[in-house]
Amino acid sequence: MVTITYFYDSTSMDVDNIPKPILDALKGLVYFDDGQITDLLCRKRVLRLSFQTQNLSPVLHRALGLSRQFVHIVVEDAPDQEVVS
């Protein structure tokens, strides 16, 4: 499962254009092939607006404090055959 969050300052790209180059770049580094990915969550958040955070890693906390755009990527095991609505 890959979760991608694009934190941007003013101009952003369409959310559907964000994952493809990132997933391709991780191929061979994090997984053998991006066909192994079963779940993908991609979102974007404006840095100048307030948003709620919980359980931030030290790295993400530092990055948010810089107030510059960045991409946060988490790769983890997906829940087995979970379907949610």
Provide a descriptive summary of the structure in words.
With 85 residues, the chain is α+β, with helices and mostly antiparallel strands. It is built from two helices and three strands. It has helices spanning 19-26, 58-66; strands at 2-8, 40-46, 70-75.
Blueprint (SSEs and pairs):
Elements: E1 2-8, H1 19-26, E2 40-46, H2 58-66, E3 70-75
Strand numbers in spatial order across the main sheet: 2-1-3
Proportion of residues in extended strands: 15-25%
Q: C-alpha Rg, in Å?
A: 14 Å
Order of helices and strands, N to C? EHEHE
The count of β-strands is 3
What about the largest sheet? Answer: 3 strands, mixed
Give the count of helical stretches.
2
Distance between the termini: 17 Å
Q: Specify the structural class.
A: alpha+beta
Specify the overall morphology. Answer: globular
Low-confidence stretches: none
Average pLDDT level: 88
Tell me roughly what share of residues is in helical segments: 10-25%
Q: Concise description?
A:
With about 80 residues, the protein is of the alpha+beta class. The protein has two helices and three strands.
Tags for this model:
24% strand, alpha+beta, 85 residues
